[in-house]
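queue> holo job accepted (pyridoxal-5'-phosphate)
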Amino acid sequence: MPNIKARIEDFNKQLPSGTRLVAVSKFHPVEELQEAYDAGQRRFGESRAQEFVVKAPQLPQDICWHFIGHLQKNKVRAIMPYVNVIESVHSIELLRLIEKEAARIDRNVDVLLQLHVAQEETKSGFSVEELLQAADEGLLTGYPHVRVCGLMAMASLTDDMDQVAREFDTVRRTYLTLKDGCFDESEDFNELSMGMSDDWQVAIKYGATLVRIGTAIFGPRQY
Ligand SMILES: *Cc1c(COP(=O)(O)O)cnc(C)c1O
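queue> job finished
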């Protein structure tokens, strides 16, 4: 088993001060999350609603839970009591539903808008055009229980780091356009979540404020 504590300490040494680590714990048992917690880790990322709602109540209350997986509409209600940041908002319809479910239990939640920049069609997210159009139409703001805090993206699964860099650059430029245009009055639009175990070094060059690291902390997942 990997030395989770040593790996977390290693990341904390290597990441620049403006970049925080989200420990992606999907498929790993609560004992391993607890080990990361005991090493000081407080931000965890889960991607499956059913797994998340079983694990979250078993772990300490001061964890900041990021939901990073494809979120189905019928799962929003289930995750709402536990989640702090929903990173994978891929449509306006989902954003509206998150507002509705957060209001229902009188909770506030942070979200990131997921941008689709990868070559794989299977990944979800807004296209750049869709997101800029939604901004023009005023659809990204005005949600009393939801703070829209930035963008999230996944790069293509490829060894071509120039391709990955181009994709992260697109995310960064889109983020800056929105920050100037749509969120200029807001102090909240500050996060760029990008970079995983194999491409986080590239992501920090393009301004990632959150990196989502699973395998490099917890080892390979047993699907
Ligand atoms: C699983 C996952 C990660 C972590 O991937 P690793 O390669 O194991 O670091 C990051 N982001 C998302 C959206 C994921 O689903």
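queue> The CA atoms of residues 80 and 152 lie 19 Å apart.
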